[in-house]
Model the fold of this input.
Amino acid sequence: MSDLDTTRFWLEALTWDEKGMIPAIAQDVTSGRVVMFAWMNRESLKESIKTGYATYWSRSRQRLWRKGEESGHFQKLVSVRADCDGDVLLLSIDQVGKIACHTGRESCFFLELKGDHWVAADPVRKDPKEFYPAR
Done:
């Protein structure tokens, strides 16, 4: 792979996988902490740019997923960066409510390997039943 061709139209300059998807990492603009990983397609990326709020592609629901549409924990888009190959996106976001994970934690990356098992290293900030009553 070569470096991202910056002379091409921004959307087409990216390297999409065979399903038209690209991985997106969301990083909190204030703390620098990676709060989640999700997939985007062209439509979700264009929607994110247009609205200023992170929108992903939900593979389980097979539809656009506007982060925060159920929980109220939206992600305000600060910037979008692509890696040198144009096959991964880094979204700098302002996480509304400081909860990114459906478990009620700040980050989806809360499990830490301790010896031979995983330990929840971050506390639950809010009971998920408060924002996902049907679950």
User: Anything to note?
Assistant: The chain has a mean pLDDT of 93. The first strand starts at residue 21 and ends at 28. The beta strands are 21-28, 34-41, 55-58, 63-66, 75-82, 89-95, 111-114, 117-120.
